[in-house]
Write a sequence for this structure.
């Protein structure tokens, strides 16, 4: 039996869903394909490309954002669960003057190599330093536990977070 021809003219459009939420303090109202994740919306609809798709399974942390105060893997958040949520991305953190010491510390400590994991690491560090003013190594490693880096070995990232904590506590 030959394969059925699935040409564009035979294809059905995706069902869409309306979502209303906040991203970086901006009200967002969109109709998106019902299979979209928060990461899809950020990258393809809002053109906020700081969050990366690494594994697509919530294991690597490249897509980390803060949603309603909690760190989440945006690749796992379905669009149908976004209504009423408040999302903070790396772009929103970058525009926060209070986050500048974190970004500067990553640069100073050369905690950035290929850069793929860096946005997720900075987002997790931002959340960590909001929770712990002077985190221990153990608290830092727990705070970064959802983020994988294949380049740095984490030593410089931990150093950067300690340096950022010192700057933020001045």
């Amino acid at each position: 039996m030959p394969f059925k021809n699935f040409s564009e003219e035979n294809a059905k459009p995706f069902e869409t869903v309306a979502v209303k939420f906040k991203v970086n303090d901006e009200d967002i109202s969109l109709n998106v394909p019902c299979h979209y994740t928060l990461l899809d919306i950020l990258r393809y609809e809002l053109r906020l490309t700081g969050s990366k798709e690494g594994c697509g399974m919530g294991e690597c942390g490249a897509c980390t954002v803060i949603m309603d105060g909690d760190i989440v893997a945006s690749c796992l958040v379905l669009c149908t669960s976004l209504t009423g949520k408040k999302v903070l991305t790396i772009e929103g953190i970058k525009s926060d003057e209070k986050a500048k010491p974190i970004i500067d510390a990553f640069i100073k400590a050369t905690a950035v190599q290929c850069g793929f994991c860096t946005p997720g690491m900075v987002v997790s560090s931002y959340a960590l330093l909001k929770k712990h003013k002077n985190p221990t190594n153990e608290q830092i490693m727990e705070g970064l536990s959802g983020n994988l880096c294949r380049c740095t070995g984490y030593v410089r990232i931990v150093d950067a977070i300690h340096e950022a904590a010192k700057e933020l506590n001045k």
Remarks:
- The longest helix spans residues 118-131.
- The CA atoms of residues 126 and 152 lie 19 Å apart.
- Residues 96-168 form a domain with the DNA polymerase; domain 1 fold (CATH 1.10.150.120).
- The chain has two domains: 16-89, 96-168.
